[in-house]
Amino acid sequence: MRSAVLLLLLASVLAAQPAAVEGTVVDAATHAPVPGVHIQMVSMTSGTSMPFPDEAYGAISGKDGRFSIGNIKPAAYILSTQKAGYIKAPGSADAGRGNSLALKPGEHRTDLNIEMTLKAIIQGRVMDENGDPVQHAQVSATSASAGGPQAAAGRMYGSTDERGQFRMTGAPDRYVVSAAPPQNGMINMAPEVRSDGTQPPAYAVTWYPAVPDKAAASVVEAVSGRETTGIDIRLAGQRSVSLRGSVGGFPPNQARPFVILWTESPAAQVRGERIAVVSPDGKFAFAGLAAGNYSVEARLDNPDGASMRSTPVPLRLDSDVAGMDIRLTAGEELRGVVEGIPGPAAKRTIGLETVTSRQNRITFPSDTPVSIEADGSFRIPNVFPGKSRVKITPLPEGMYVKTVRADTSESRDGTLDLSKGVAGVRVKVSVSSGAATIEGRILNADGTVSESPVLYALLAESPDDLNLANAKPITAGATYSMKNIRPGKYRLFAMDPLQSGGEDFLKTQYEKAEPIVIKEGDRLTRDLKLPGKEGGPRVP
Hints:
By secondary structure, the chain is mostly beta strands. The protein has 3 helices and 46 strands. The strands form 12 sheets. Strands 21, 22, 24, 25, 26 and 28 form a 6-stranded antiparallel sheet that branches. Strands 10, 11, 13, 15 and 16 form a 5-stranded antiparallel sheet that branches.
């Protein structure tokens, strides 16, 4: 007994031993020491969908490029560097594993070699179709290299001044550069009337030098320590289109509704919305729109009465649209029953996750979960027409929502379609005990277990499901585990957000991931490799 206690005490002492790191910062091209670099190590809380900083340590490199950080709490850290005019060379530090560093109790690293490279600069102008400068245009550069440093260093971003000029700095790489027209504010302005019958031109996202398609863009070589100039972009002008219509169904002499036009264009760099307040006679108008995909809906948020919504309508605008009729409806009470949950159902809640589009996930009052009664029945107030996803919390382990039946229609993907209305609909949610599980390790490209402090495993049935909010966060060095999986055909892959960039990256990894068919009751083990230099996931 005494020996066991001593062993526990010894283990506790060893676990509490601090770690330390020493290293050198050098220029990636000349290998000369780089003084004055701020090295920072930050640990992140794990196991949550939004990790946040925990412990932080730092040092400044000396004239010989050397730095030392002691008394470090053992953990996995994000390593960052800062020095004016420099950026950390991709792949430097920690055996080429990028921005993460894991330290064990009592570990003393003396070989941390960090390579810095001078930032590359891209300069140019953005002009309209007449050659005049465009102020406040949003410019960005995206890596054109498979597995290039863009993922780790972040995109280049810039905005034009009154002369239409922009200047962006970032990692050396091959880029494609785009410019998005300035956003004129969220609130829609009144349509401009011209006596000659013309309309103001609309400008779409344009890729260097003057093409509307990313695939046709010219590649810009951004070189370390140099300025790449003359990257002038002439925005692609087009005939603007308009959308006009009316909103009905709202009570008179109350708050006026408003109409939201969501931008759905896949080429948009800045996705957003425009809002038009409905006139007293129910009319609304949007003008100066670029052709593209949109969705439109109306809302009435009445603090003194019931809120009202319309069913979101997707539409393609290639020409003017007039006479669009939108009807507002008040929220209705949705009644239903949950079947198949063992034990006291009253300890669980049911809610609706309303999705208006892939880019815009809006929380309505109907999304507020309500308790399930002891007999499995439920009543959700203030539900509006549209498509929602049923969510039961907590769902018993090993179970999944198998079917959702609304009157005569049935869904097998957990979706509830109330596009035709809510009044009088009765819902039956059937839960099955045949849910699958999947677990495994997340590995580096070289096959070693990744110890990055921020990792995600993603399981998606379609590209529309790619959302880090629904991804599985992984504790550094541990296995991932996904439970309560509905049978189906998925893509499974892992990512390190410190080495990965944006929505395009997620789409690329999804397309490269091998399809996986998950059957009822499956208990699967899959190790996932993080993207290598070629930028694609590999599933052993």
